Amino acid sequence: MNIKELKKLLDRFKNGEASLDEALDRLRSLPFEEHENVTLDTHRSLRQGFPEVVFGEGKSSDQILSIVKNMAAHEENILITRIDEKKARPLLESFPDASYSEPARTLFIEVHPVERRGKGTVLVISAGTSDMPVAEEAAITAEVMGNAVDRLYDVGVAGIHRLLSRKERLMEARVLIVVAGMEGALPSVVGGLVARPVIAVPTSVGYGANLGGFTPLLAMLNSCAAGVTVVNIDNGFGAGCAASIINRV
């Protein structure tokens, strides 16, 4: 249950349009609801402004479908991350209006219109085209959490003029997510150009010494640019979520 639905229920009860039993029945599932193999956090929208997100990796199609159906019954928008095309198929059959992104491996079911809550634009930047899947996960996450999102892809330090020629877009953004693999230098460059929060996302893209993302992770943690914060390797979702929270303040 989200804040808008809770206010509507309380107003109906206050005005005598809903009985005490009806109100209690609607609130009975808070703060969590237990089902087979899953305990839904039905209180998360009230605490954090967005419902629980389903992590698709490691779950079967049947498990995901069961979780999603229970969430949809609560009239919540549903975001699933790390879900491959094979697992997505049964969900798209059950929810034909759902949107699936193959590069980002995300599936979004819009149960009610997304409320625009962000105060400005979240700009998602990727160093290379190979970093785009992680960048898209971040961008889609920020969008479904109610933000205007701009994308600026393939502008890494090997051709820094590509980034500098779009400097106005960097300056206009309220929060910036910078996604990079290889040596992970791009967030430091961006952090030195703007007076805005920069969320750095290291990716596992690169040759052997990239060490599966540890090299850019350590580079970003050691950034000399002030104001750069770092999320986990390939964690586009975490970056999109953090940017969304910052953009509401």
Uncertain runs are: none
CATH C-level of the largest domain: Alpha Beta
Based on CA atoms alone, the radius of gyration comes out at 20 Å
Specify the CATH architecture of the largest domain. Answer: 3-Layer(aba) Sandwich
Distance between the termini: 22 Å
Instruction: Label the overall shape.
Output: globular
SS class: alpha/beta
Number of helices: 11
- CATH topology label of the largest domain: Rossmann fold
Mean pLDDT: 88
Neighbour order of strands in the largest sheet: 8-7-9-10-11
Helix content: 25-40%
How many individual domains? 2
Main sheet, how many strands, which sense, barrel? 5 strands, parallel
* Percentage of β-strand residues: 15-25%
Strand segment count: 11
Descriptors for this entry?
2 domains; 11 strands; Rossmann fold; 11 helices; alpha/beta; 18% strand; four-stranded mixed sheet; 249 residues
